[in-house]
Amino acid sequence: MSKKLPFIAGNWKMNLTISGAKALAKSIVKACADLPEAEIVLAPPFTALSKVKKTLEDSSVKLAAQNLFWEEKGAFTGEVSAPMLRDAGCQYVIIGHSERRQSFGETDEGVNRKIKAALKSGVFAIFCLGETLVEREHGETMDVITRQIRGGLEGIGGGELKSIVIAYEPVWAIGTGKTASPGQAEEVHSHIREKLALTYGIGPAECAIILYGGSVKPANSFALLSEKNIDGFLIGGASLEAESFIQITREAIRAYKEKK
Ligand code: PGA
Question: What is the per-residue pLDDT for 202?
């Protein structure tokens, strides 16, 4: 995992059958053969992981899961562990997505345990954080982000930071069509990098990959990625169609090159 390329992840959420996921992965892999200048990761639902893994085999596209449980095995009906994800071929796992925080009661402490479990099994974590609309309107955005970073990364050392991608996803922008403006996103991204620098030093903070997520579309991706501290995207809705996902990737590559 390196910051040399823009990092583009598709979060398919609870969508697609196995055959639908396979077909989408196939179209993306085909298009990606011409796009070696991006690190591309796809996160299908659990049921489709193994089929999508097969489709990705001869490509540079990586596989991610959307969640895990921190225990390795045992009587935890319905849960999936980090060693199981590793076994299924996942190089990444999304942790702490706001939908999980809001609908399934995930806390910063639980997110922290999940990140540690992923790293222990050699799976990179895509650690999500972001404020709600009420928090933003009350001027609490930076406090919330600081709390989520502290809580999520508690006890995680500088060496381990290299295995974590951070995704800033303002809750009010997810699936709503309302994107944070490039300026709003950059403000939070630079705050995240500052906080990382305080704990881990400037070097590791500079190397950290920080994604933006929340209604990313082909039309807004160039401007967002042109911002200094935005290194890639976590894409929901627009990742469910190969064409829009690829178009965003192309725009990201273009912006990344201009920015360098
Ligand atoms: P969205 O979702 O692109 O549909 O807003 C982003 C996400 O939830 O990761």
Answer: 96
Among residues 247, 232, 260, 203, which one has the least CA distance to residue 34?
Answer: 247
* CA distances (Å), origin 190, targets 2, 104, 146, 197: 19, 29, 12, 10
pLDDT digits (tens, 9 = 90+) for 123-170: 999 999 999 999 999 999 999 999 999 999 999 999 999 999 999 999
Tokens representing 5 are 């390329």
HEC states along 61-109? CEEEECCCECCCCCCCCCCCEHHHHHHCCCCEEEECCHHHHHHCCCCHH
How far apart CA 258 and CA 207 sit, in angstroms, is 19
Q: Tell me which residue has its CA closest to atom 1 in ligand 1.
A: 236
Q: How confident is the model at residue 92 (pLDDT cuts 50, 70, 90)?
A: very high
Mutate which of 8, 171, 235, 244 for ligand 1? The one with the most ligand atoms within 8 Å of its CB, which is: 235
Is 169 noted as a catalytic residue in this protein?
yes
Give the ligand 1 atom nearest the CA of 213.
6
Does 201 sit in the ligand 1 pocket, CB within 6 Å?
A: no
In this structure, are residues 152 and 112 in contact, taking their beta carbons and an 8 Å threshold?
yes
Nearest CA to ligand 1 atom 9: 236
Q: How far is CA 182 from CA 76, 119, 189, 224, 227, in A?
A: 42, 31, 10, 5, 7
- The pLDDT tens digits for 37-76 are 999 999 999 999 999 999 999 899 999 999 999 999 999 9
Confidence of residue 81 (pLDDT cuts 50, 70, 90): very high
- Cα first-last separation, the chain: 18
Average pLDDT, the chain: 96
